[in-house]
Structure prediction request, 603 residues.
Amino acid sequence: MKKDLLKCAAILVIIVMGLVLGGCGESRSPFAGTYKSVEPFAGKNFVDLTLHEDGRGTWTLAGKTIEFTWVVNEGKIWIYTKTGAIIIVSPSDSGRMLSADMTGDWHPGCPPNACIVFKRVSEGG
Amino acid sequence: MEATQKPEGTGGAAGLNLQHLGQEVSVPAGTRIVSQGEAPEFFYVIQSGRVRVFRETEDRIRTDLTELGPGTYFGEVALVTGQPRTASVEALEDAKLVKVSKQEFDSLLDQNPQLARHIIQQMASWLVAGDTRLETQVVHQVKLRQVSWFDYLLMMGLSVILALVFNLYNDNKIALIHGWGQTGVPEISLDQAKQELQKQQAIFVDARKSAFFDQEHIKGAMNLPVILFDLMYPMFNFTLEQTPGAKSKTVIVYGGTISRRMDVDLARMLVSKGLSHVVVLQNYRAWDTAFPVEKRKPKAAAGMPLGLPGLLEWIPVSIFVLILIPPIRRSPYLSVFCRLLLGAIFISFALSKILRPAVFALNVVDYGMMPSFGVNLWALALPWAELVVGLFLILGIRTRAAATLIAAMNITFIVGLVNAILHQMPINCGCVGEVGEPVNWLKVMKNTGMVVMCIQIFLYDRFLVLDRGGFILRDRKI
Prediction:
């Protein structure tokens, strides 16, 4: 019985390790940095987007900052807000430009009426 | 078995008057005195030392039956029945035995009815003991095939406890019941809302996701998805400022469903931003019949590559081919394959949902079938149930109960998917990926394949399982 438990424990460790390693995702470092929206949002202020390498990030507009977490998946940046919304951001020009799909869904290409384009201001988070 | 211990109250070997019978032999420790399967020639009486009686199968699985000491005897059964030896005997320590030939044994029985009666009694008691052992084994096998309430309680209880504890320490924790204890917002009846609309004193705001808004909304309404409130409010406010007379108009929020009162949530948020005259519709589900609406042709969610989990999900479809072949359909090896596959699929699905329950809760809300009080509880517990049940399947613990639970989950998913397809809902499946996963009939087929796999496991699984009596590497037969 003791051997059985050891076998089970070994299988569990292998599974958990596989899952943890498999779930690490892609490296965030190519996209970590600070970005600014190319055009003023809502005709007023520019949006400052900061992506820290540890997976945290901030979205600042008119002095108000919203925190979020982010991962890189299939070459796209996934921004997770506290409310459960997901913003899919498509990088281009080697990560210098980002297009955020503000519909909360994924569309092939950024929908023109719901798209915010960011330009990298500085690298690293 | 062909050995016996001296029964209580009967004469031992000393009482058999062996003075003129047999031949004394000395046996060193470790010597095999009798081998299972050989022809019987002698009856043995132990004078000193100890021996062990055991059986061994062809594949070397050994079962120790008993140990015998001085004054007891063995080897009589094969001599009585004339059958080959049914067990082996080896000396545990240096022993002295009296070795009696078959002829001598027969004459001993003729002259000693007490010994003959004792042997008959012994054989009868072995029969009873054998029946009891057989019954124990059958009960063990039946228990292995049984599904008890305890199994379900164990898995579901474990899932709920893990979910609640994890949620306490999760950075992305959610409330057990969404909106619990929050203050209400003023409501407006449909008739009053219509009057406000006629007087052009109302601004309708749709709180749902943009995909739902695009499909159907009240004519002239604005869209401010509650889940993107923080990010989208500046745009909404800017639009409001550009609308003449907007500040004095009543903001009527709608878009709540049975699964989440997004209208109430959004109204609260707007009030917190300083907007006055914010109300929600009293009969929150009647807006599409009470007001003129704008409709667009439903658009399915776009498909995004899902990687390995997406590919894994396709394999259950192959089960429809495999079950057409009877020997494979009943194979316990197929059960092992199904268990490993379903386990891997459900564990991989669970992990993405466990870390971000708020995202999964919104997926549940999209389907619009779960009452609002259950959405967060479901979003917390289901991924843990998927993980626990997946692990039980892979490890071979309570596999029939685990298969039943996975089948139940899949049937729930199928009901949700079919409902979403028939109502042309613009939603993501939320099965493997978090976004970019269309709801379609292929998803229904994959889930149906998984149900078939569960049935196969339920009926035929018996290898590589950890049952109540230990690990079964191969089929255990009685």
